[in-house]
Amino acid sequence: MRINGTALLVAALVVTLGAIAFPVWSYADRSGTGQANVAAGTVNTQWGPLTAADRDLIVRVRLAGLWELPAGQQAVERAPSQAIKEAGDHLIVGHTDLDKRVRIVAAQLGVELPNQPNEQQQGWLQEMTAATGAEYEYKFVNLLRASHGKIFATIAEVRAGTQNDVIRRHATQANQTVLDHMNVLEDTGLVDPKTIADVAAAVNPPK
User: Fold this and answer.
1) Running along the chain, 207 residues long, what does each successive block of 10 average in pLDDT?
2) DSSP 8-state code for residue 204
């Protein structure tokens, strides 16, 4: 049985406030990967080797929640149709849980996490906030479907190659959440074929 996302708004705020207990690093690139995380290379842990790609996944999952959770809250509060409200509800439920998990994983593995969305993600939130009606619904669905499609491919790649038990479990959990969100966004019937094509080009660039 699923919990209504509106009932989790307080919990989401607690998650946001709790984030200040974690260090903040600055980032310039769009993926949000901290240079310190990448530069560390592969290190040994009690759960197996931890690679730069493993750390990057942790950071990207955290970044996803930092903008998708408020996007979901906004949809529940102001979307004109029930289908978009339902998608927002899924985002709230999924990212409230996933953000709690990713912070535990980061603490276990010593990975520093950001505490705010990156510039691109902040721009997406601003786009949605400025839109209304049908334009709002279109932007909500397609911006989020594009973002989920890209991280879905990253999760699969890391899950297939990681030798770290904690990362393997985390990738499996993240995969389930992202797949649920992709499905509910697609169920709105508003996903633009161009969005899918752009995601495919991004995750499988021409050789």
Assistant:
1) 45 39 33 48 92 96 96 94 96 96 96 95 96 95 96 95 97 96 97 94 82
2) S
CA-wise closest residue to 170 among 109, 119, 87 = 109
pTM above 0.85, yes or no: no
How many angstroms separate the Cα of 161 from the Cα of each of 51, 75, 116, 177? 10, 36, 29, 20
Write down the pLDDT at residue 203: 87
What b/e sequence results for 168-195 when a residue is b if at least 16 CB atoms lie within 10 Å of its CB, and e otherwise? bebbebbbebbebbbebbeebebbeeeb
* CA dihedral angle for residue 175, residue 180, residue 182, residue 188, rounded to 10 degrees: 180
pLDDT of 6: 46
Q: 3-state DSSP call for residue 33?
A: coil
CB atoms within 10 A of CB 64: 28
CB 127 within 8 A of CB 46: no
- The residues spanned by each domain of the chain are 48-203
Q: Residue type at 191?
A: V
> Which CATH class for the 48-203 domain?
mainly alpha
What is the spatial distance between Cα 159 and Cα 23, in angstroms, rounded to a whole number? 26
Nearest to 173, CA basis, from 57, 5, 17, 47: 57
Position 100, amino acid: K
Best CA proximity match to 144, nearest among 203, 88, 201, 80: 88
SS3 of residue 207 by DSSP:
coil
